[in-house]
Each structure stands twice: as structure tokens, then as C-alpha cells.
Amino acid sequence: MFPKAHHRALTRAIVAAALLLALSLLPAPTSACSLVAQQPDDGWAVIKTADGALFVWNASGVYFSLALKGAEIKPLDDPEHIFLSVDGRVLQIQLAAIKNFAPDAKEKRLDDKAILAAHREWESKYIEQLVHSKLTLRTFNAKLSTGSDASMWQFDMPEGMNAAAQKQLYLTLVAKDYVLMLNSETGAAVSDADGRKFLLDTIATLKFSPTPIDVQKLSESIRSAKP
């Protein structure tokens, strides 16, 4: 998510995704191509795979892919933000520029843990303004298989919001000059542990690329590899 759209993205995450508003889903193309959806202006795409889909990000000098496993994975019909439905579970993917919340990070030589803590504070304070309620955060530090530090945090939805989602879950890590954030939720049918596992399993598939990923070439390669 580009910095200028950050606050609108947060609003959508808390109000729309959290309250599970009925958003229509983008239909998959009927052609043989495995490309499900692509937003070239925003630099992301979703490619159908044998066991789910591959999310590809090409923007802001950051290039990566995430494997999403599920029987039905579709982008939610939102032209400005990245929301995916993974077997009915809402997943948001966004980037926040470090300069927006820790402009002196380089001068202070902040490590990843300090940057993620600053991002969590910045993000949660803004959410408190949206929901007009003080949040009680639970934080879990994580170490990815790549050795990178990650932060997981969550909070209960404020009482009185009548939300189907009971908790909001976040997983963040530093990616160059940005923080990459995955956001999901839990409810009556999804436990906290299951929600955190979903985010950890997803981030475990993260693959960075030093150069922009050729989405069309990758899509054709995946399609040709199918039995």
C-alpha cells in the first residue's frame, strides 16, 4: 500500500474487513491463463496455482511473492486496497514507509525490532482514533526462517461495534525502507492460535527478488507446469 493511501487502508481494514461487509469478488478469467487478477498501476498480481494462488508485489522498489494456500482465493472488489479472500478469510497486504512513522530511523540506527515497535505504536494509535477506544495490545516476537525479525500483535474489537470479527491480527517485518504488514482476523469459527498460524504460514512463503518479477512469464510457467 502506498503511503498516501495508508490511512484509508487502515479505515478499510478496521471498518470494512473487521465488520465483514459484503464485498463482491472478482471472477477469475475464463481463459487458460493462470493470471487471476492484476493491478499494473499498483504493481501487484494474483496468479492461480495448483494449491491456491501466488501473490506478487512489484512496487516502491520492493519485489516479492507470497504463496497462499486454499481452495478458493480471490481478490475482494476494492480498486484502491489489497484485500484477498482465502477460503472466506480476509487477508490484507500493505506496505508502510518507515519515514512516515520513524523518520530518524537511519540517524538513530534503529534495528528491525525497534522499527517494528515504532510501527506498531503508530498504527495502533491511529486505529484508536478510528474506533474511539483504547486498545489493549498483545505482542508476540517472531523469528522467520530467513533469520529476519518479525512482530505479531493483536487486539480485541471494541465492545459495541457488533463485529463478526472478534480480534484483529497483524504480522509485520522490515522490507528495505518499508514495513510489510499482513492483517487478518478471528471470530467464533477461528481461534487466535489458528489466526496467528495462518499469518506465520503465509509469511513463511515470502520470497524477495532483487529485480521486478515478470508476472506474465511466471504465470505462463505455472500454467505449463500443471499436470
Taking pLDDT < 50 over at least 5 consecutive residues as the criterion, the unreliable ranges are 1-33
Indicate the percent of residues in helices. Answer: 25-40%
Strand % is: 25-35%
Note the run of SSEs as H and E: HEEEEEEEHHEEEEHEH
The order of strands across the largest sheet is 5-6-7-11-10-9-8
Which word captures the global form? globular
Q: Gyration radius, to the nearest Å? A: 17 Å
Q: What's the total helix number?
A: 5
Secondary-structure-based class equals alpha+beta
* Overall number of strands: 12
Separation, N- and C-terminal Cα atoms: 35 Å
Give the topology, please.
Layout: H1 6-17, E1 35-39, E2 44-49, E3 52-59, E4 62-69, E5 73-75, E6 83-86, E7 89-97, H2 98-101, H3 112-131, E8 138-143, E9 149-156, E10 167-175, E11 178-186, H4 192-203, E12 207-208, H5 215-225
Antiparallel strand pairs: 1-2, 2-3, 3-4, 4-12, 5-6, 6-7, 7-11, 8-9, 9-10, 10-11
Description:
By secondary structure, the protein is an alpha+beta fold. It contains 5 helices and 12 strands. It has helices at residues 6-17, 98-101, 112-131, 192-203, 215-225, and strands at 35-39, 44-49, 52-59, 62-69, 73-75, 83-86, 89-97, 138-143, 149-156, 167-175, 178-186, 207-208. The strands form 2 sheets. The protein has a 7-stranded antiparallel beta sheet with strand order 5-6-7-11-10-9-8, with helices on both faces. Helix 1 packs across helix 3. The protein is globular, with a radius of gyration of 17 Å. The protein starts with 5 loop residues before the first helix and ends with a helix. Mean pLDDT is 82; it is low at 1-33.
